[in-house]
Design goal:
Blueprint lengths: L1 E2 L5 H4 E2 L12 E10 L2 H8 L17 E7 L13 E4 L10 E5 L3 E4 L5 H5 L4 H10 L9 E4 L5 H12 L3 E5 L6 H10 L4 E3 L4 H4 L8 E4 L3 H10 L5 E4 L12 H6 L3 E4 L2 H4 L2 H16 L8 E5 L3 H8 L7 E5 L9
Parallel strand pairs: 8-9, 8-11, 9-10, 11-12, 12-13, 14-15
Antiparallel strand pairs: 1-2, 3-4, 3-6, 3-15, 4-5, 5-7
Helix pairs in contact: 4-5, 4-11
Length: about 325
């Protein structure tokens, strides 16, 4: 799949045949099993994201692939045919059947990590882990608050926080499937699930949050900041509303609120991503990050997949199943 111009994904993305290059001595030939369609992928195609690949380009920033062949200088003790691998950096172009890739840009994933979990393991769970670790030292019993709690990052935050005995206040929008979504979030450990308007009342019995995680912006971000404890930190890692983050002056002066930003693609080297995966994979082997619901589409039906990924109030992550998927156990 490739796009030669920016625009609506379902319009500008085309399915094309491209000749594979030779496998160099330090390369690995892989067949992709599955690749998700993330909001950032759509933003890149639309030309609205800071990461701007040279055109024509193959979309897709994460996925899982099967090693078919390794180059003569690749360590056969680490990579061998049949291994599953994931990319260590963004911009790989994972929406394709096969690729020749540098071995040092890949990370081996154990076969007992479910395929769709592995395909969605390299962006959202690492982002969640960084959000919890890089800004505030959270002790067991501490409280955090987040909007967009039903997003993939939001769900990973809940699972990681629950494992650390950290309370979570989780804000989601009013939606037709509210009961189903809120029940799902509670089932993976959410302490409180509420709307923006009800967040203060719903969490009155809890310690004030030390950390707020914002992926929405606008009034939602302002409300998060107002709910923080003195000296609390709000971290913005997304802006789904396309509205600015506004922190009222009194919060800065009298509550010493701190505002930070985070983007995994620019704040995380390959070595750091590998270290994050070392922490996350044992959890994934025990079933973590598998609770989000997946909606799978064959690559031939990619237009339907792209349209579905653009719809609001989806019940799950849209994932492209690539031809090699049929050769593995999901």
């Amino acid at each position: 799949m490739r796009f030669a111009e920016h625009g609506e994904a379902a319009t500008v993305v085309k399915l094309e045949e491209v000749e594979l290059g030779q496998t160099g001595p330090k390369d690995v030939l892989v067949d992709f099993l599955a690749a998700p369609i993330n909001p950032s992928d759509l933003n890149i195609i639309e030309g609205k994201y800071p990461l701007k690949p040279s055109l024509p380009a193959t979309p897709g920033n994460e996925g899982v692939a099967l090693v078919r062949e390794i180059g003569s200088e690749v360590d056969s003790n680490y990579f061998k045919p049949g291994d599953r691998v994931v990319p260590l950096e963004a911009g790989f172009g994972t929406w394709r059947t096969s690729a020749v890739l540098p071995a040092d840009c890949l990370y081996r994933v154990p076969s007992n990590v479910p395929t769709l979990t592995a395909a969605t393991l390299t962006i959202n769970p690492p982002t969640a882990l960084c959000l919890l670790d890089k800004f505030v030292h959270l002790q067991p019993g501490a409280t955090i608050i987040q909007n967009g709690a039903n997003s993939a990052v939001g769900q990973a935050v809940i699972e990681l926080a629950t494992a650390r005995k950290i309370n979570t206040i989780n804000i989601i929008r009013e939606r037709p499937d509210w009961d189903e979504v809120s029940s799902h979030l509670r089932s993976i450990g959410a302490t409180v699930v509420t709307t923006l308007d009800q967040a203060l009342a719903a969490s009155a019995h809890m310690p004030k949050p030390e950390l707020a995680l914002n992926c929405v912006g606008g009034p939602s971000a302002t409300k998060l900041a107002k709910m923080l404890s003195h000296g609390g930190t709000i971290v913005t890692y997304g802006g789904m509303s396309l509205q600015p983050v506004t922190i009222p002056t009194p919060l800065l002066i009298f509550k010493d609120i701190r505002a930070r930003g985070f983007a995994l693609s620019i704040n995380c080297s390959r070595a750091e991503k590998a270290a994050l995966l070392e922490q996350l994979i044992p959890m994934a082997q025990k079933g973590a990050f598998s609770s989000q619901r997946f909606e799978t589409y064959a690559i031939e039906d990619f237009k339907s997949a792209l349209q579905r990924a653009s719809e609001p109030f989806r019940g799950g992550k849209v994932v492209l199943e690539l031809p090699a998927y049929d050769t593995c156990e999901a």
